[in-house]
Amino acid sequence: MGRLARTLAACILLALLAAPWPSGPANAAVEASDYDAFWLWSGVRPQPVLAQARTLYILQGQISAIRRSAHPEVRFAAQGVAIPKPSRSEVWLAYRAHTLRWPPHVHDTLLAQLRRWQRAGHRVVGVQIDFDARTLHLHEYVDFLRDLRRRLPVEYRLSITGLLDWSSNADPTAIGQLKGVVDEVVVQTYQGLSTITDYQAYLPRVSRLGLPFKIGLVQQGEWRAPDYLVRSPWFRGYVVFLRNP
Questions:
Q1: Which of 42, 52, 129, 169 suits a disulfide with 79, CB 3.0-4.6 Å?
Q2: pLDDT tens track for 140-151
Q3: CB within 8 A of 203, min separation 6: which ones?
């Protein structure tokens, strides 16, 4: 081997040694037993892993607009699990919203459910809104969340789910207006029951939201944790969406 070839080989070896090694196997399946925060949605049977839960996001209702006339009727459909026996877990009551135009009866129902869970002995810490806010309509969503924040008793926190593309395409002004309104954003890396194919392309920019965030995973979906994620001062952990086997 000539001097040039030996020098080139040495450079390649040094580059390989200096490169960061990936954390975990590529496209590893999400095992719920490795986590302690979970979404429990309608129709999903309880699993033994719930015994180790420190945080639960439990679906309690869906808010939809029924378009039967020029003036859609907004309905609150109670969904999710009934109030179980108290546990040591922190509980967030989660609501799936398909419209942001909530009439008074929707707010009244939500507040009544909070009080019932609290009276039953649960550690209810807040409300989570699951709404697919497209980047072009974030300003409208911010206005809705400000109003909801004013209606919630001060002891409850406010959580929202977020789309991966917020980190790349959302108006920074709209994102900035969420500060002081929401306490956390849980960024979903899945759609339906499947992991978004190019989720890794968005993750480096999630910290730019400047908001406390968690990463939402789907049980048995694909996930490869990047090393830089845990170094973000805004990162608060993971939430796993449980699914039936």
A1: 42
A2: 999 999 999 999
A3: 226, 229
The whole-angstrom distance between residue 232's C-alpha and the CA centroid of its chain comes to 17
Token duo for residue 117: 């869970």
CA atoms within 13 A on the CB side of 48: 3
Residues 6+ apart with CB under 8 A from 228: 204
Per-residue model confidence as pLDDT tens digits over 27-36: 589 999 999 9
Domains and CATH numbers, the chain: 26-241 (3.20.20.80)
